Amino acid sequence: MTYNKIVKAAAVKLRPEEILEKLKQLNAAISTATSTEGNQAETKEEPSNGWHLLKFQGQECIQKSFTLRNFENTSSFINQVNMRAHLLGHHPTVQYTYNKVDIILQTHDAKGLTDVDFVLAKKLTNYAKKYK
Fold it and tell me: Which residues sit opposite 63 in a β-bridge?
């Protein structure tokens, strides 16, 4: 059972307290990064726009919705998501329509959330900035 094609590390399911802490850190990092780019009032990402903890197919996962500039940017973003997920040996649930993308992350082998979900979430959030 491996998830990272680069380092071949085995997925280890996170404990509930670890999940909450990592989610808090992820959303804080996103908020800090966006508030330092230009006008804070225009770019600061509110917690409601961050990653959310929820149950999907009976397992804990994290979810985020992205609104991008147009269909071309959406396609480019999804290609980037696919390539990064492939490198991590990950298979996110992705749904999209025109300029809206919903992503759900969970590690199926671990039947829940692992570090790789949070690493990928941070990378995807940073990638999406290029396409807004």
Answer: 52, 104
Instruction: Determine, yes or no, domain membership for 9.
Output: no
Could you tell me if residue 10 is inside a domain? no
Q: List pLDDT tens digits, range 35-89.
A: 555 443 333 333 467 999 999 888 999 999 999 999 999 999 999 999 999 988 8
Q: In 3-state terms, what secondary structure has residue 54?
A: strand
Q: What is the pTM of this model?
A: 0.83
DSSP 109-131: TTTB--HHHHHHHHHHHHHHHTT
Looking at the domain assignment, is residue 6 inside a domain? no
Both structure tokens of 120: 């990928």
Task: Please state the separation of Cα 4 from the chain's center in Å.
Answer: 16
